[in-house]
Design goal:
The chain has 293 residues and is an alpha/beta fold. The chain has a single domain, classed as 3-Layer(aba) Sandwich (Arginase, Chain A). The protein contains nine helices and nine strands. It has helices at 45-53, 84-97, 110-115, 150-158, 177-184, 194-199, 201-213, 245-255, 274-292, and strands at 9-10, 25-30, 72-77, 100-105, 124-129, 165-168, 190-192, 217-223, 259-265. Helix 1 (45-53) crosses helix 9 and helix 7 packs parallel to helix 8 (245-255). It is globular.
């Protein structure tokens, strides 16, 4: 690993077993793409986001990580297929030392790789921000594990119930008719569409607060296409009428105090998406600040 994310100490995976500190934050990348039905490039995002972070000071009118008391460690990148045992070991260390995990994707399928190794019980919940529900049973047709099936797979493997799964920001969730039906019949998950956030923010924040209050531990996944295409103009699946950064931040202020894990996925790397990477780094800095407060 040539670069660490700005403000993070470099640490090796091999030293996790002798890791002495409690209450720290561990960052790692899962630079991986499975079968894609759209443009590729998200596997390059972890390194690109680290590189882009070095152009920041970490201090702005929006965030100031220099005032944070938590120690941050970047332990590099891993292949979620070939290095499954390492992901499990990272979770074991995080649980033992009460550390938070921040993961850089990769396409959205890496959320399955990371969270299928996490501890789960009835007091654990999952919240994801996305333009699409990613609840397809197969996507593309005949493919059962991809960025479009990740939450269907997690729900089935972990036997999660509807009340543990909150999907925020959907505004283009018609990858398959089966997925659309799952959302429409309201038996699979709890769903807050982007339009509801736009039109009735006060009520939505109340709903999120009530949801979070029921759980001891939250896992959060943020797909870049949850945001309107104006903020991520080179995304592989650009969608209009998405969430604004301020709306997501207001929700994260409620969610992050109980959150142990956050992943940021689908920040597709190309030669022309400097603005998108810039936004991604700023979002990560804001998450770090909110996590601290």
């Amino acid at each position: 690993m040539k670069r660490t994310f700005l403000g993070f100490f470099k640490k090796s995976y091999d030293s996790l077993n002798s890791f002495e500190e409690n209450n720290t934050l561990i960052l790692f990348g899962l630079p991986y793409e499975r079968i894609k039905a759209n443009k590729r490039g998200s596997r390059k995002a972890p390194k690109a986001l680290r590189k882009k972070s070095l152009e920041f000071s970490g201090i702005s009118t929006t965030f100031n990580i220099s005032q944070n008391n938590t120690n941050y460690y970047d332990i590099g990148d891993y292949n979620p297929v070939k290095e499954k045992e390492k992901i499990q070991e990272i979770w074991n260390s995080a649980i033992k030392k009460n550390c938070k995990l921040l993961v850089l994707g990769g396409d959205h399928s890496i959320t399955f790789d990371a969270l299928s190794k996490a501890p789960w019980d009835e007091k654990t919940a999952l919240i994801w921000f996305d333009a699409h529900a990613d609840l397809a049973d197969e996507y593309p047709p005949g493919i059962f594990q991809s960025h479009g099936t990740v939450f269907a797979n997690l729900k089935e493997k972990l036997q999660l119930n509807k009340n543990q799964m909150l999907f925020i920001g959907g505004h283009a969730y018609t990858q398959t008719i089966d997925e659309h039906n799952k959302i429409q019949d309201e038996t699979e998950i709890i769903h807050i569409p982007a339009q509801e956030v736009h039109s009735n923010k006060k009520e939505i924040l109340k709903i999120v607060t009530e949801f979070v209050s029921k759980f001891d531990r939250i896992y959060v996944s943020v797909d870049s296409d949850a945001f309107d295409q104006a903020y991520v103009p080179t995304h592989a699946t650009m969608e209009p009428f998405g969430l604004t950064p301020h709306q997501v931040v207001e929700i994260l202020q409620i969610v992050l105090p109980k959150t142990q894990y956050v992943d940021v996925v689908e920040f597709r790397h190309t030669l022309f998406n400097k603005a998108a990477l810039n936004f991604g780094v700023g979002l990560i800095f804001k998450i770090l600040e909110l996590w601290e407060s």
